[in-house]
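The record is passed on directly below:
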Amino acid sequence: MERIIVYELLGNLAVSNNDGEILHTEIEKALVSGSRVIVDFNGVDVVIAQFLNAAIAALYENHGSEELKEKLVITGLKSTDSLRKVIARAKSFYVNEKGKKLYR
């Protein structure tokens, strides 16, 4: 199991696409190696949807919902509302995109 501590990686603000991509890369490395990943947001004061889209939602492009449910644990968020919305949109988007690619 691998633990990624967002505060140590990015500080107390998680607000930019670039920072989201940094976290995404770290999560992706752990998932590809077969590890279960804990992403710990303790100490992070601000997390916005733009960041979560780049960090978390983008994972759904290459990983199925069941795989992520099994291997990805997110802790320490002050509110999970944005995360739930981002994940729901990502699931819908990537399922629809994969379906379109199959029929092209």
Notes: The mean pLDDT is 91. The CA atoms of residues 18 and 54 lie 8 Å apart. Helices lie at 6-10, 17-32, 49-55, 65-71, 81-102. The chain has one domain: 2-102.
